[in-house]
């Protein structure tokens, strides 16, 4: 598909999908025309507002795109049986011709009350994360007769189909913030993805820790991807962007037990004219981020076009 933009953004620049059925196809096709590297959805445990299932959205988008990577950030370990999840993910990888990236994490503690109320096991979340990844990788790479021996999951001689297109399986990026979780990501994952509600300064500290861990664990940084989701609002000036963002954060995070919606605009968002946004995003690239996932919080179609204005400045910011 030929790009209609004057220039293409770095392939490491991706976008978050809108949460509106009628916008998904035109948004994804336009993102592909603009040259973005991927499109991402989110896994939601419970939501007061309208929310589509991220995996089903990726299946839908696989049929209407040709080049975009398809990512989900992040699946919460333990919510789905890992064998069932492995099959779902392998199916998306097949339908997309090998374009899937899998984000996964333990989730936040406040999610577990709802999960437990629904009869979903919430004990030993870290062990479920580690073994869940092990189960999926075993089923993907040993599809004829897979085996796995863990504390929670243990089996042998299990057949699994379909095989994913990507071998030995889709890349797995762990969502993490605390140092033990970041260390774990370096040890067992293909990458680490930082959450959008994390402020830039906090992310940069986490990134420095990850970079030290890569060195201490003897991992080649070129084989480990670092990404971050970012809430972005491109407007003619900062005040207009702030005026739009404050109620948007209230709609998205009002009443959330972890995040303070009233302070999120200035704490976590990148906003303002294109040059100011590009400068802030370039800071993340310069520090070592490999991919940035830009999420609009309002007017997604219009903001997608505005994100294209970041292209000239960011084209030189992404690392080769």
From TrEMBL:
Keywords (A to Z) from UniProt: Oxidoreductase
Gene3D superfamilies, alphabetized: Luciferase-like domain
Keyword set includes Aminoacyl-tRNA synthetase: no
Superkingdom of origin organism: Bacteria
InterPro entries in UniProt: F420-G6PD/mer (IPR050564), Lucif-like_OxRdtase_Rv2161c (IPR019921), Luciferase-like_dom (IPR011251), Luciferase-like_sf (IPR036661)
One term of GO molecular function: oxidoreductase activity, acting on paired donors, with incorporation or reduction of molecular oxygen
Keyword Hydrolase attributed: no
Residue span, Luciferase-like domain: 14-291
Full protein name: LLM class flavin-dependent oxidoreductase
Organism annotation: Actinomadura chibensis
């Amino acid at each position: 598909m030929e790009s209609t933009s004057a220039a293409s953004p770095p392939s490491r620049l991706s976008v978050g999908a809108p949460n509106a059925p009628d916008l998904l196809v035109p948004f994804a096709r336009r993102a592909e025309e603009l040259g973005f590297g991927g499109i991402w959805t989110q896994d939601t445990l419970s939501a007061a507002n309208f929310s589509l299932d991220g995996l089903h959205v990726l299946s839908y988008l696989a049929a209407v795109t040709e080049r975009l990577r398809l990512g989900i950030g992040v699946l919460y370990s333990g919510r789905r049986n890992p064998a069932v999840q492995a099959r779902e993910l392998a199916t998306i990888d097949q339908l997309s011709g090998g374009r899937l990236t899998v984000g996964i994490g333990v989730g936040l503690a406040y999610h577990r009350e709802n999960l437990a109320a629904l009869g979903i096991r919430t004990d030993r979340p870290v062990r479920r994360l580690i073994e869940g990844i092990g189960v999926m990788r075993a089923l993907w790479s040993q599809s004829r007769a897979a085996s796995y021996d863990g504390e929670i999951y243990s089996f042998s001689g299990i057949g699994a189909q379909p095989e994913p297109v990507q071998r030995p399986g889709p890349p797995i990026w762990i969502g993490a913030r605390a140092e033990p979780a970041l260390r774990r990501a370096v040890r067992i994952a293909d990458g680490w993805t930082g959450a959008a509600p994390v402020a830039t300064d906090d992310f940069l500290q986490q990134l420095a820790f990850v970079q030290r861990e890569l060195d201490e664990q003897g991992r080649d940084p070129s084989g480990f991807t670092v990404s971050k989701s970012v809430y972005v609002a491109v407007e003619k000036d900062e005040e207009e962007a702030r005026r739009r963002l404050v109620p948007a954060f209230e709609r998205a995070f009002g009443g959330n037990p972890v995040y303070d919606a009233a302070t999120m605009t200035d704490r976590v968002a990148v906003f303002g004219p294109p040059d100011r946004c590009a400068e802030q995003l370039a800071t993340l690239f310069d520090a070592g981020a490999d991919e940035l996932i830009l999420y609009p919080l309002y007017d997604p179609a219009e903001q997608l076009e505005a994100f294209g204005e970041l292209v000239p400045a960011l084209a030189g910011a992404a690392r080769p």
